[in-house]
Amino acid sequence: MIDHKNAGVDAVVIAGQTVADFLREHHRDLLGAVTETLVREVPVYAALPRELIDGDVRRVIDRTLDLFVRALGSEGRVPEDDLAELTDSAVRRAEEGVPMDAVLAAYFRGSRVATEAVVGTAGPADLGSVQRVVVIQLTFLQDVCAAVAAGYARHGRTVQAEQASARHALVDVLLAGGDPRAAAGPADVRLPERYLVCSLLVGPHPDEADPSVNRQVAERRKLRRVREELERHYAEPVLWRPQSDGALALVPSSDVVRLGQVVREVERAAGTSVHVGAVTAPPEEVATAAEVAVGVAEVARLTGRAGGAHTLADVALDYQLRQPGPAGAVLAARLDPLDDRPDLAETLRSYVAAGLSRRRTAVALGVHPNTVDNRLRRVAALTGLDPTAPADVPTLRAALVARSSLGP
Predict the structure, then answer these.
(1) For the whole prediction, is pTM greater than 0.70?
(2) Which pLDDT tens digit goes with each residue over 88-97?
(3) Could you give the angle at which helices 100-119 and 80-95 cross, rounded to 10 degrees?
(4) Cβ contacts of residue 226 below 8 Å, gap of 6+?
(5) What is the C-alpha to C-alpha distance for residues 19 and 34, in angstroms, rounded to an integer?
(6) Do the domain assignments include residue 108?
(7) Cβ-proximal residues to 109 (8 Å cutoff; 6+ apart), any chain
(8) Are residue 286 and residue 365 in the same domain, yes or no?
């Protein structure tokens, strides 16, 4: 007779026999029953190669049955080292393309088969033991499910990292003017006939001016919202490269009108203005198109145009003024007297960008309108060009555009 009182915490007894002894005695039969149940009841497992079923899957079932026997002595908890085995197994299933829900279903089906065998011998006097087995089983499955989820999460992070790296490499090839076909496969990208090569200049979010908010976090959150909203509107991957004040995005489309509608949604999601320079180009001409797109976006923002999608045709005159040449250099030099007065240069840029509105300029700079007036008069005195005189405004605007091509 078994001394159940002194047999240890694993001595859960049903029909006069410990559950642990029952499972050890019927281990081989349960191993076969669970294996065939998975093939019969879980469609994904029914479609797996028989070599996999009889190999790795059967070994995992064998190991899990042993783990459950051991877990009877720890109220269902599984040691970390043993859970690591199950996590590694889940990673292998993920690599083979077996969905996580199928793996979880397999563990529950196997648990059901073992439990039915155990409680099938129970009588009315074994109710307490049956209840305890069920509690232990649920705790065991909790640990197992967590291990499976960890395995799939690990695999997902690896795949995402590899895909992100491959897509970065693809962008490098496209921007270098190379042949992107070899790089497209590892990146899991189907090259479109044409890309919308987009340079995005994202305005500041109000959170960035709040001293109580981490500015770097606010900037990253803003760019994340921009990217997520842009990607949401396109079925194929949008390739992305962060840049100063924004990003370069390769949108798999040639529909500029739709892009304009999408950018409006992007601005709402970002909570700020987004100036986009957009140029359509086949993959092999992305490098050249990117240079033009950057210039279009910069000119659109500099000249006070509203946020949205802008093409070269929209800013052709200002874009041309931005190009290197003797006339551009002469125009840019007209603003040299402001080099030592960054406050005046900033006021002039804001004034032009605000559509020559004193009030909007004052709001943008956070100063009184009278301060704007005083600074504009000083600009006129130093440059000989009066920002408030209609005849001088085109030259000042052209000088700003030409000067922007020189950089800081």
Answers:
(1) no
(2) 999 998 888 8
(3) 130
(4) 200, 202, 246, 247, 266, 269, 270, 274
(5) 17
(6) yes
(7) 34, 37, 38, 41, 42
(8) no
